[in-house]
Design brief:
The chain is of the alpha/beta class. Helix 7 runs antiparallel to helix 8. It binds adenosine-5'-triphosphate and magnesium ion.
Length: 403
């Protein structure tokens, strides 16, 4: 009999009326995620998605399952996942299959318990009876084991469902959150730093599909700096799905700023101009929010007054998922999602190239608007938008799934 993967939705199951569209989006994202590594059959029933590998031999099927698991771990909307053995829906078959199937885990632990879940209440044995009888069989087969119902090393679960029964021994926590795409599109302002990739990950987790936008200032910023940012997009793709990446040439605007505007306003004006350009790219891409990696008080441009001056330019909400987080908390996530090592590579960012010596820490909006109105940036903004380049980053590339 076959081994498959069972996925549980978690929070998704609470979505009532929208549930079908949430499930469909999750299934679509999963198919998209796996289609380059092989053939799988998909089914859904009772808040569970069933993924069956399609190959001729048991080894090939096992290899498909091995390849799928780490990828599924990065799909938002999945609360838990496990590999499970499919059994016929009778206790004799469950008992027959349990011992060989659990051979890979049970010899290596000391304590266990059996849990039974009967989605099909017509099954002739009640849950406690299934647990007792299967527990007895496993104790006999694996003399190293004792039962511990409170803190077992391993919980063996038997699920009695619509058409079959399933046995599994290691339920793993999934990425959680909501399926990417169910919350609409957001435009991420992606620098090469530690924070903005983490911000992208957090908003993708809440169901936003992410489009990334990066500002560069060649020759002050190098080709390698851009490649680093592209690497970050690649690292995010397994979580966020395939992503469009826009790169905005920002040199001219920065040079005019430096020439025409008081130095202390430089950072805040630059951020307002970035925001104006971002509005245009967001509108072209049906994005209804801008996402940044700002955290309150982290640097001069992230005081409340400075944030107020930047927000004033935006017609759509600016989401700042890191606003209340400490750097150490942000770094922890960056390490977990594997963007940290890339983020700390020492390449310059357009923001750091033109940093004023004494930036205004508490800029007043009227003042900033007055300074900005002395220079007409509209033609420069049009030009920057016109010369923006676009690249698509496929989800599969990051994990070497190129078909
Ligand atoms: P990060 O670690 O994300 O670079 P930071 O702590 O260095 O953030 P800033 O440089 O002030 O802080 O940038 C704040 C936010 O502005 C970034 O998180 C990002 O969303 C956006 N940003 C900064 N520089 C760029 C850029 N060159 N292109 C696109 N967005 C940028
Ligand atoms: Mg930065």
């Amino acid at each position: 009999m076959q081994e498959i993967i069972l996925l549980k939705y978690g929070e998704l199951a609470l979505k009532g009326m929208n549930r079908n569209s949430f499930e469909d989006m999750l299934l679509r994202n999963i198919r998209h995620r796996l289609k380059h590594i092989g053939s799988y059959a998909y089914a859904k029933a009772q808040s569970t998605i069933y993924i069956t590998p399609c190959a001729d031999t048991e080894e090939a099927c096992a290899a498909l399952l091995d390849a799928a698991m780490p990828r599924l771990h990065k799909v938002f909307g999945i609360a838990a996942l496990c590999r499970a053995r499919v059994c016929e829906k009778n206790f004799a078959d469950i008992a027959k299959q349990a011992v060989p199937y659990l051979q890979e885990v049970l010899p290596y632990v000391k304590t266990f318990k059996v849990e039974a879940k009967r989605a099909d209440k017509a099954f002739p044995m009640k849950s406690p009876q299934i647990c007792t009888e299967l527990g007895g069989i496993l104790l006999e087969a694996f003399p190293n084991l004792t039962v511990d119902v409170h803190e077992p090393d391993i919980t063996v679960t038997v699920e009695i469902r619509d058409t079959n029964a399933y046995i599994h021994a290691a339920k793993l926590k999934g990425a959680g959150g909501l399926p990417v795409g169910t919350a609409g599109n957001g435009l991420l302002l992606l620098s090469g730093g530690i924070d903005s990739p983490v911000a992208a990950w957090m908003m993708a987790k809440r169901g936003l599909r992410i489009t990334a936008c990066h500002f560069e200032s060649p020759p002050y910023t190098s080709e390698r700096a851009r490649m680093k940012v592209e690497k970050l997009v690649e690292k995010l793709a397994p979580w966020c799905g395939s992503m469009a990446f826009y790169c905005v040439p920002f040199t001219e605007i920065q040079e005019v700023l430096r020439r025409e505007c008081p130095e202390e306003y430089f950072t805040i004006l630059m951020r307002r101009l970035m925001m104006e350009i971002a509005q245009r790219i967001a509108a072209q891409n049906d994005c209804y929010a801008i996402i940044t990696g700002e955290s309150l008080g982290q640097v001069a441009s992230q005081t409340l007054q400075a944030i107020n001056c930047t927000d004033a330019v935006s017609k759509i909400p600016v989401l700042r998922p890191l606003i209340g987080m400490d750097k150490t908390e942000i770094v922890d996530i960056a390490r977990r999602i594997d963007t940290y090592e890339t983020s700390i590579l020492p390449y310059e960012d357009c923001c750091t190239v033109f940093t004023p010596r004494h930036p205004k820490l508490r800029p007043r909006l009227e003042e900033v608007e007055a300074v900005q109105s002395a220079v007409d940036f509209s033609a420069l903004i049009d030009e920057a938008v016109k010369n923006t380049t676009k690249k698509i980053f496929a989800q599969r590339v990051a994990e070497g799934d190129e078909a």
